Amino acid sequence: MPKATTKEKVEAPKETGSARVYRRLRDEILRVELAPGSSLDEVGLSERFDLSRSPIREALVRLSGEGLVQIMPNRSVVVTPMEFDKMPEFLDALDLMQRVVTRFAAIHRTAADLERIRAAQLAFEREAGNALATGDAISMIEQNFEFHMAIALACRNTYFADTYRRLLQEGRRLLFFHFQYQKLDPNLTIAEMAGDHTGMVAAIETHDADKAEHEAHVHAVQFRGRFMEFLNQNLTAKLSLQYTG
Q1: Would you state the torsion angle of the CA atoms of residues 44, 46, 49, 51, taken in this order, to the nearest 10 degrees?
Q2: In the structure, how many helices (H) and strands (E) does the chain have?
Q3: In the structure, what pLDDT confidence band is assigned to residue 215 with cuts at 50, 70 and 90?
Q4: What is the spatial distance between Cα 85 and Cα 190, in angstroms, rounded to a whole number?
Q5: For position 243, what pLDDT does the model report?
Q6: Cβ atoms within 10 Å of 243's Cβ, excluding its own
């Protein structure tokens, strides 16, 4: 008589202290709850999270690798400043690299690449819906990064992909501001938020390099336009005008 087998319960791995600190600080930086340029003190963070300084330091190094914090020569740590005067240069670079990786992805993608890109697209649409429902864009921002990196990996050029990754990481806070502006429109839909992605995927699927590059450029231009509108609107809103008779 065969032995009865028992199913073992598989538990999800417990989140490490370093991962918890990384995730919390990342979210606070992306929401701009931790202001650009603000100091992050290891001792204060250790007390806040009730952890030793070692996992705190690990989390800060990870955030530094993503461009969200800067570790200074004197070992102090600050949230990476946002240099708004350099935004046009950043947006030009993002546009160029987005066109490059999307064009090469259309040329070189495999069936497995396309499957990953489609999965990332669907995940973005799901999180866009959640963002519209809750007003919290953090998961959508992360899925946007995963979508574009799925395309970058399909371009089969590690130099292009690594440069694009750095730009996307630096731009995550910009996407937070971008969504704050978008959601002012009461008629905003998931289809509108994901429409550019859909065009890019369709061009990559058919190996249409010219169309893929065009869709990527349109996506970058629209992002640029909305972000600059948001920036101008909010900068002028802070001006106090006094009239004298």
Answers
A1: -170
A2: 10, 3
A3: very high
A4: 31
A5: 47
A6: 4
pTM of the model: 0.81
Reported residue count of the chain is 245
Look up residue 75 and give its two tokens.
């070992």
Q: Max Cα separation, the chain?
A: 102
How far CA 49 is from CA of 20, 43, 52, 82, 104, in Å, comes to: 9, 10, 9, 26, 44
Residues sharing a CB contact under 8 Å with residue 218, sequence separation 6 or more, in sequence order? 196, 199
Going along the chain from its start, the domains and CATH numbers come out as: 17-79 (1.10.10.10), 84-233 (1.20.120.530)
Q: 39 pairs with which residues across the strands?
A: 78
State pLDDT tens for residues 13-26.
677 889 999 999 99
Beta-carbon contacts of residue 236 (< 8 Å; ≥ 6 apart): none
Q: Are 169 and 146 in contact (CB under 8 A)?
A: no
Three-class HEC string of 180-240: HHHCCCCCCCHHHHHHHHHHHHHHHHCCCHHHHHHHHHHHHHHHHHHHHHHHHHHHHHCCC
Mean pLDDT of 27-46: 91
- Amino acid (one-letter) located at 33: E
The residue among 91, 90, 67, 94 whose CA lies nearest residue 78 is 67
d(CA 207, CA 216) in angstroms, rounded, equals: 14
> What's 24's DSSP letter?
H
The mean of the pLDDT values for the chain is 87
Whether residue 201 contacts residue 118, with contact meaning beta carbons closer than 8 Å, is answered with yes
Q: Do 171 and 219 contact (CB within 8 A), yes or no?
A: no
